[in-house]
Amino acid sequence: MRMLLTAAALCVATPAAAQEHANDADTKAVLTAIDALFTGLTTKDAAAITAATWPEGRATGTSTSASGEARVTGSDWATFAGRIATIPGKPVERNVDPHVHVDGDIAMVWTPYVFTLDGKFSHCGTNHFDLVRKAGVWKILNVTWTQRKTGCPPA
């Protein structure tokens, strides 16, 4: 019985133990790449957004309409960057407590976020970023996010 419990505990513990958490330098570099995207968003600079991303990637958002219908929208980075100029006011997105994981030249970041327009709360959700490092430079391949107006961290 003791062996069975030990084996069960190892099966449960192994996946978490096998996850590689980013070292400080990788964490900083990955978050710097995301900050570059957010700076491009805030300044409505399409070139800054595309410079922080891989052109093969996508930006995908999910939300629920007032009627309860699930919506998924997505685009390539060039289209996403082009739409940013149409956002009214000054958009600012802030990640809250990002969790960074790195394995070699790939990384993922899972983090709640808060989005404001002209300093006023707009919405919140969770961001999931996939990043790839090439020639020592981290860029965002994909971002997927949820979007809601309730259950949000403080803006």
SSE arrangement:
Elements lengths: L1 H17 L5 H19 L3 H6 L1 E12 L5 E7 H8 L6 E5 L3 E5 L2 E12 L2 E15 L2 E11 L8
Parallel strand pairs: 1-7
Antiparallel strand pairs: 1-2, 3-5, 4-5, 5-6, 6-7
Explain the overall architecture.
Strands 1, 2, 3, 4, 5, 6 and 7 form a seven-stranded mixed beta sheet that branches. This protein has helices spanning 2-18, 24-42, 46-51, 77-84, and strands spanning 53-64, 70-76, 91-95, 99-103, 106-117, 120-134, 137-147. It is globular and about 45 Å long. It is built from four helices and seven strands. It has one domain (22-147): Nuclear Transport Factor 2, Chain: A.
The percent range for strand residues is 35-45%
Give the integer mean of the pLDDT values. Answer: 88
Helix content: 25-40%
Order of helices and strands: HHHEEHEEEEE
CATH architecture: Roll
**Can you summarize the main beta sheet?**
7 strands, mixed
Oligomeric form: single chain
Catalogue the unreliable spans. Answer: 1-20
Q: Helix count? A: 4
Number of domains: 1
Coarse shape: globular
Q: Using the coordinates shown, work out and report the CATH topology.
A: Nuclear Transport Factor 2, Chain: A
Radius of gyration: 18 Å
